[in-house]
Amino acid sequence: MKQNVGTVDRVLRVVLGLGLATQAFIGLATPWAWFAVLPVFTGSLGYCVVYRLLGIDTCGGVRQIARHAPQQVAQQRGRADEDA
């Protein structure tokens, strides 16, 4: 299961989810307060099924940079060797 929820998104989900859960425990229990489990769960896992279905990946930019970084370093080293 590949993570598709970025750091900022995860923090917001957990904070808002805990806020909704707090409402359920202090007596402001609305039906929406019980749905607080979902954002806390997806935020803690870093994976959201809805994002997967829609093709959204809020942590994709960082991963692509990290994935291509070794290739770029190797290319730059090759250029440095040619210049010498």
Structure characterization notes:
With 84 residues, this protein is mostly helical. The protein has one domain. The protein has four helices and no strands. Helix 1 runs antiparallel to helix 2. About 6% of the residues have low confidence.
Keywords:
84 residues; mainly alpha; 70% helix; elongated; transmembrane
Give the structure's gist in a few sentences.
It comes from Acidihalobacter ferrooxydans. By secondary structure, the protein is mostly helical.
Number of strands: 0
Termini separation = 45 Å
Shape: elongated
- Class of secondary structure makeup: mainly alpha
Strand content: under 5%
Pfam families: YgaP-like_TM
Protein name: Inner membrane protein YgaP-like transmembrane domain-containing protein
Domain Inner membrane protein YgaP-like transmembrane: 1-60
Keywords: Membrane, Transmembrane, Transmembrane helix
